[in-house]
Design brief:
With about 600 residues, the protein is an alpha/beta fold. The chain is built from 22 helices and 18 strands. InterPro entries: 3-OHacyl-CoA_DH_NAD-bd (IPR006176), 3HC_DH_C (IPR006108), 6-PGluconate_DH-like_C_sf (IPR008927), 6PGD_dom2 (IPR013328), NAD(P)-bd_dom_sf (IPR036291).
Length: about 600
């Protein structure tokens, strides 16, 4: 029989505690809140009044509703006032000793059947629960900030949590209008465990000057559809908070990828905590402001370098990527020479471009005249000699180094001196392609994202040999065709794949450990972090074989233990479960 919960205690009235109290009162529950002293109570009451005032002005509450909501909340400075509550949510700062002390006191005050829920985002629920005589009735109930807005609640069960307590807590979260996911007791739970490894990796990239902060953030927004880039998100969370969560995760996992990047500690020591102090990775116009202002950090790698002129472009290949790139250039007024291995393949590629252009016309994104002009700009050829006078060649053949090297060797013989040679590789070393030519300074990576006509991002990859004006040319071409260029060095995964695939791999390891189900993990990342797709949905779309190949490339380059492909991913690929393309992957289609 489900518990009858009508009065809930909330311990701690900081931003999270006040938000949770508001959620509870909004659901018609009576709430008893407890803070350390009258000053803290006044501050907590201020949080609630400010938040409900915003809801009132935003039309989400009326005046009567606001008064009724605030009237259901009582304030106290004594835990003994929680003696009659039906459930307690603890939301004090992240200190194991402090939380354990609160729970030990509550254990003596409340009825034996009362459930204790901790809102901790990273501490062990097991370690908190053992300080009570009722560890079976202790759960994690991790709300996300701001609690009145965010839908996700992670319900954390320990090895001794009673099954009916989990069931009742899930039902209670649903009653609050939240989306609960049930997980085991591990540092970071689902969302933080997957999110903070990715954020830490981004800090390391920035620390190593591999890419600028703007390019790292733009890459994940334009390449993955993330609502915020990793460094901007860290500024929002607070660098001190992120460091604490990572440190807790590292002490449990001993995974080097969770060890906070040294730069985080240096910035915290310097008082650069993010938005709350007005400066973190970015500078803001005031503490707690979201408005970024200019500062002295380096933001561009090509300023002041003149690009080479580009009017005619060669594209080598006939796959989806090659035809997409040809379409992008042709639509923007550039003449395109599309080279294929046979006339049939070349004609089929032009037909694919025509089909895509026709679709754009039907959708009203392109006029019939512009579509016809774009198609007329594409010349299909079978001979490399036809590329002799182009200003830029983009190679988009199969993702095999020997195949690409053969193409670059052929281009080196026929393409005029001074032309830029680019590869669209997503994971292979650009310098290996450059080494197949007598002009490595003219070679650059231009990694378009699929589908090229739609995706805004292009990663411009410089090798140690790439000339500055070649980088400037690549950047100028991206701008000319309406793409957002980000710059990085020549190492496995570039920016997007290097940040994305270890996160996806971590999700597979989480599933493999029976820590949480695939649907719950997907829900946590979509609802809790605002990502467009959960990790397993995305892996099935990308293809498990493609994902495994990229993960192996990352592991072989960095030799980082945490990058080793999850055995479950290897097994699914071996079994032929490759995702949507085979009808079975992590999910069945």
């Amino acid at each position: 029989m489900a518990r009858d919960i009508s009065t809930v205690g909330v311990v701690g009235l900081g931003t999270m505690g006040a938000g949770i109290a508001e959620v509870l009162a909004r659901s018609g529950l009576d709430v008893v809140t407890v803070e350390l002293d009258e000053t803290a109570v006044a501050r907590g009451r201020g949080h609630l009044e400010h938040s409900t005032e915003r809801a009132l002005s935003g039309g989400k509450l009326d005046e009567a509703g606001r008064e009724a909501l605030l009237g259901r909340i009582r304030y106290s400075t004594s835990l003994s006032d929680l003696s009659d509550v039906d459930l307690v949510v603890e939301a004090i700062p992240e200190s194991l000793a402090a939380k354990a002390d609160v729970f030990a006191q509550l254990d003596k005050i409340t009825r034996p059947e009362v459930v204790f829920a901790s809102n901790t985002s990273s501490l062990s629920i097991t370690e908190i629960g053992v300080h009570t005589a009722r560890p079976g009735k202790v759960v994690g109930m991790h709300f996300f900030n701001p609690a009145p807005v965010q839908k996700l609640v992670e319900i954390v069960k320990t090895v001794v949590t009673e099954p009916e307590v989990v069931t009742d807590t899930v039902a209670f979260a649903e009653r609050l209008g939240k989306v609960p996911v049930v997980i085991g007791d591990r540092a970071g739970f689902i969302a933080n465990a997957l999110l903070f490894g990715y954020l830490n990796h981004a800090v390391r990239m920035y620390e190593q000057r591999y890419a600028t902060r703007e390019d790292l953030d733009a890459a994940m927004r334009f390449g993955c559809g993330y609502p915020m880039g990793p460094l901007a998100l860290l500024d929002l969370i607070g660098l001190d908070t992120a460091n604490e969560i990572l440190d807790t995760m590292y002490h449990q996992s001993r995974n080097r990828l969770h060890a906070p990047a040294p730069l985080l500690k240096q910035m915290i020591t310097a008082g650069l905590l993010g938005r709350k102090t007005g400066r973190g990775f970015y500078t803001y116009d005031a503490p707690d402001s979201p408005n970024v202002v200019a500062d002295t950090a380096v933001t561009s790698t090509v300023d002041g370098v003149a690009p080479r002129p580009v009017a005619k472009v060669g594209v080598v290949g006939t796959g989806t990527m090659a035809t997409g790139i040809a379409e992008v250039f042709a639509k923007r007024g550039l003449d395109v020479v599309l080279r294929a291995r046979s006339l049939e393949k070349a004609q089929a590629s032009v037909a694919k471009v025509k089909k895509s252009l026709d679709k754009a016309v039907v959708k009203g994104k392109l006029s019939e005249e512009d579509a016809a002009l774009a198609l007329a700009r594409i010349t299909p050829v079978t001979d490399f000699d036809a590329l002799a006078d182009v200003d830029l060649v983009v190679e988009a053949v199969a993702e095999e180094l020997s195949v690409k090297q053969a193409v670059f060797a052929a281009l080196d013989e026929v393409v005029r001196p001074g032309a830029v040679l680019a590869t669209t590789t997503s994971s292979l070393p650009v310098i290996e392609c450059a080494a197949a030519t007598s002009r490595p300074s003219d070679v650059v990576g231009l990694h378009f994202f699929n589908p090229a006509p739609v995706m805004k991002l292009v990663e411009v990859v410089s090798t140690i040999a790439t000339a500055p004006d070649v980088v400037a040319t690549a950047s100028a071409v991206c701008q000319a065709v309406g793409k957002h260029a980000v710059h990085c060095g020549d190492r496995a995964g570039f920016i997007v794949n290097a940040l994305l695939f270890p996160y996806l791999n971590d999700a597979v390891k989480m599933l493999e450990a029976h820590y949480a189900g695939a649907d719950d993990i997907d829900t946590a990342m979509k609802v809790g972090c605002g990502l467009p797709m959960g990790p397993f949905e995305l892996l099935d779309v990308v293809g498990l074989d493609v994902s495994l190949a990229i993960q192996r490339t990352l592991y072989n380059e960095f030799r980082e233990e945490g990058f080793a492909p999850a055995p479950l991913l290897e097994h699914l690929v071996t079994a032929g479960r490759l995702g949507r393309k085979t009808g079975k992957g992590f999910k069945d289609y």
